[in-house]
Write a structure and sequence with these properties.
Strand content: 5-15%
Strand order of the largest sheet: 1-2-3
Helix content: 25-40%
Number of helices: 7
Number of strands: 3
Radius of gyration: 23 Å
Order of helices and strands: HHHHHHEEHE
Distance between the termini: 57 Å
């Protein structure tokens, strides 16, 4: 292949030319590259980057990756809302999530059962929230969930607790005590 660069071009310019020559070899029409449903799987990470996806994991299923990209613009528009938090978690494959806002305090009128979600706390701590997922997750996944929440939740809010509706660890030998899971909240 002949170069269009002048003989006085720098090494960086030649390297850039060598990198961009393969662009013409793409078999996919441009309109398919910019569509989450038709983009080739191997190019999805770059499409996610172009659409401003905050958290990406190559271990996600193809459907989860495409759903994340497909809804990324809506999530960016509604960032800081409960809707965006739920969508980000669901698209990443963590299922439906219940968001409990504020640090609810107990009044002694019998309206609340002592279930761990309510504390004898300060009602001024309104900028906290809890997330309750349907199934337990490993510690590594919990770190990813925290990053997802940090990107989607309002900056003024603080995650108080990450919990699950299903039993996290039952003593049946299926889970080892190797640090991958913990005994409750993160």
């Amino acid at each position: 292949m002949s170069s269009l660069l002048p003989p006085s071009s720098t090494k960086q310019e030649r390297a850039l030319e060598g990198t961009t020559t393969c662009i013409g070899a793409l078999d996919v029409p441009l309109r398919k590259l910019w569509n989450a449903d038709t983009c080739p799987v191997n190019l999805l990470p770059w499409l996610a980057w172009a659409f401003g996806v905050d958290e990406w994991d190559n271990a996600w299923s193809e459907d989860a990756k495409r759903a994340t990209i497909r809804e990324s613009l809506q999530v960016q528009r509604k960032k800081g809302s409960i809707w965006s938090i739920r969508r980000v978690l669901e698209n990443a494959g963590y299922g439906a999530a219940e968001i409990i806002e504020g640090r609810a305090t107990i009044r002694y009128d019998g309206s609340v059962t002592h279930n761990g979600f309510y504390v004898h706390g300060d009602p001024s701590q309104w900028a906290t929230y809890r997330v309750v997922l349907e199934r337990p997750i490993a510690n590594k996944q919990a770190e990813q969930v925290k990053r997802l929440l940090k990107s989607a939740a309002p900056a003024r809010c603080h995650l108080l607790e990450l919990n699950f509706t299903a039993a996290a660890n039952i003593h049946d030998g299926a889970i080892r005590y190797d640090g991958a899971y913990n005994h409750g909240t993160v």
